[in-house]
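Chapter summary example: a protein plus NDP.
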Amino acid sequence: MVKSITDSAILNNGIKMPWLGFGTFKIDDGSEVEEAVRAALKTGYRSIDTAAAYNNERGVGTAIRDSGIPREDIFLTTKVWNSDQRNERSLAAFEESLDRLGVEYVDLYLVHWPVKGFYQDTWGAMEEIYHSGRAKAIGVSNFMIPHLETILGDYQIVPAVNQVEFHPYLYQKDLLDYCREHEIQLEAWSPLMKGRIIDDPALLSIAEKHHKTPAQVSLRWVLQHQVIAIPKSVHPDRIAENAGVFDFSLSEEEMATLDDLGADGRVGPDPFNFDF
Ligand code: NDP
């Protein structure tokens, strides 16, 4: 089981990706994101998740460069936004992301959402990007089983990762099983349910037993399902707290209690029904 912040999953093409990463959604470009990423790297995180849509790729790139940590020691993810899929601009959008980040390559490039009628062609462009060597791995985000079936049926490269909403109130077991069967690594966004998990009685009671916080219990639950977690915070104390998940483990019984909390506690958009 995962024992340290640098322990990594091995993706289906052999690339290593840390089990714990740092999320940057809703962190402003400039000093806010630079300080947050700096704090995360200082704490020991070596995986950073951004997206063209977050409008903070410049700051993320600056913080990575300024850290002095060799580029190859950091796992960097970004994503192609929906309007670029609709306008068949995926290849151009990728170049623009590299420019803003100020890097030669990303470790993981994701299709942000399965835009109806467009995500298939986008996957074709992703394959092209992968073959160029400037994305070490390619994957998808917010893809449900029918979306994945289309890609697996019609294209050559199996997505390395599927990044979806996943936390104890949205245990997507069927999707997790499907991804495991097809060697697609599941990655959890909003692993803290956007912060709502922190005063949940069920998590509080388990957390007390381990002298941990509900946030740490939620992250540990994600990791023990062999799912990658990318919590976000702009506060250095919380960034450190969220990394304190390697010195305890949840029992089978505790895992089962959390598994049973919910299947429909979605806090983000529904991948089958979104309008952006
Ligand atoms: P999270 O579940 O990571 O929760 C973040 C919220 O919880 C923030 O409000 C943060 O506040 C608060 N928080 C963080 N740590 C703690 C703590 N220890 N105790 C109490 N509160 C805490 O939500 P996100 O939606 O940000 O998801 C994580 C990442 O996943 C994103 O940042 C992004 O990178 C990715 N993502 C991807 C999506 C996709 O479509 N592919 C969609 C959504 C997210 P504060 O910052 O003030 O500490």
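Key point: The chain has a mean pLDDT of 97.
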